[in-house]
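User: Predict glucan endo-1,3-beta-D-glucosidase's structure from this.
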Amino acid sequence: MGLFKVLGFRGFLVPLFFFAALVVASVSGIGVNWGNQATHPLSPPAVVKLLRNNGIQKVKLFDADAYTLNALSKSGIQVMVGIPNDMLYTLANSVKAAENWVSKNVSAHISSGGVDIRYVAVGNEPFLSTFNGTFEATTLPALQNIQSALIKAGLGNKVKVTVPLNADVYESASSQPSTGDFRTNIHDLMLQIVKFLNDNGAPFTVNIYPFISLYNDVNFPVDYAFFNGYESTINDGGKIYDNVFDANYDTLVWALQKNGFGNMPIIVGEMGWPTDGDRNANLQYAQRFNQGFMTRYNAGKGTPMRPGPFDAYLFSLVDEDAKSIQPGNFERHWGLFYFDGQPKYLLNLGTINSNGLVPARNVHYLAKKWCVLKPSASLDDTQVATSVSYACGRADCTSLGYGTSCGGLDARGNVSYAFNSYYQINDQLDSACKFSSLSMITDRNPSTSDCLFRFMIEIDDASLDGRIGLLQKPVVLVSFVFMLFTIM
Ligand SMILES: *[C@@H]1O[C@H](CO)[C@@H](O)[C@H](O)[C@H]1NC(C)=O
Ligand SMILES: *[C@@H]1O[C@H](CO)[C@@H](O)[C@H](O)[C@H]1NC(C)=O
Ligand SMILES: *[C@@H]1O[C@H](CO)[C@@H](O)[C@H](O)[C@H]1NC(C)=O
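Assistant:
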């Protein structure tokens, strides 16, 4: 996006109203996604401190929670607020509802609170193939109503709309980006949306996940998922591709260009690498991917089709242990930080601290105690399987399994891990460590060098308001557990 860099500098020379329109598109440091689907989230004020101490100046949210936005007030951090998919129907069908949304969730925070809201993300990956078209009829009308409401509120220049889309809204017939176009079954809809965004000076937002390429295809060349080390480069009419991120991004550039929108600004709304829950989700790969990306990003290096700097938001800030694991067990492990704000690996964001991420401070932990399988309990006890299934169905066992951080535990370790997860998620209640007569509480840390038996942090009640209940996908969790037991 070399064009915008140039325009950004020229902005100082052109009349003020031009500058106002351009400032939205100027690039300023890396952004991060901040989600709150966790049983024990850090409080919003603690997260805002974490962002500031790490020099992160842009944040993307998935809703417009008032407690979160209040914490961002006067922080100097630019904000993208989000509208969840389940609100699209209402906002598509009611101008009044869209006006209320903008008034309460944008205008109020800008005028009273000094929250620097720059974007409204309308929906989250609404055209994902797995949604079976559920949001196809409502996304564009909701987008239109929110845009009108922003204009009516006098925010048309300051706040831009966008729709974060999964990269599966476009496809290519070959590994060459130049064969790219929008997905056939939503081609017309995509053109209407792109035209609407373009008419309103709004960017295209896309989420790009090389990890998923590797996860979905055992034959995918591992090095091609990263930003270094791939030898069999792809030549697309003289443009050379040595990583799938560039190829994916440029497939979108071609799709836009073919349909007459070659200059449309693109924001990468999500990109990152998980650290657990799959054999390809580990600290080494996450470090390689994110550092590889950050080094290029900070050097202002784009893709072969758009060689200049662009805007991107890493996915994500912290792990979220209450996320649905329908996409896979890795889904709860995307954080640059663990749930408690402790960095996972050495990452230089090129902002404040070149020695790596700065941890959250003053985090209050629960007591150092754990719930484990009693030494006297027998693995042959018929209660073992039901107890583990119960615990994993209500807590988080995504760090167990082939190639994961706790994949090396023995059978007894597996059971203890499940018991402990349930006990900690329930704030170390005595009653949460009563798995018939199999369990006991200990102050001896059962963790191994690879596998952490966590204990949780204290949470303030206000943080829990917007959180998603743990039982949202019990079926998936239970089937995972049965699998675990057939293996054992
Ligand atoms: C504002 O956003 C919150 C959080 O996403 C949502 O629950 C609420 O309904 C929105 N308010 C209005 C008036 O739509
Ligand atoms: C989409 O369709 C599939 C197959 O018919 C079904 O299993 C799935 O539950 C549907 N998903 C949604 C979100 O409707
Ligand atoms: C522990 O559970 C994991 C996860 O299913 C399984 O792969 C592994 O084989 C189990 N280990 C033992 C020793 O039973």
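Confidence is low (pLDDT under 50) at residues 1-26, 466-488.
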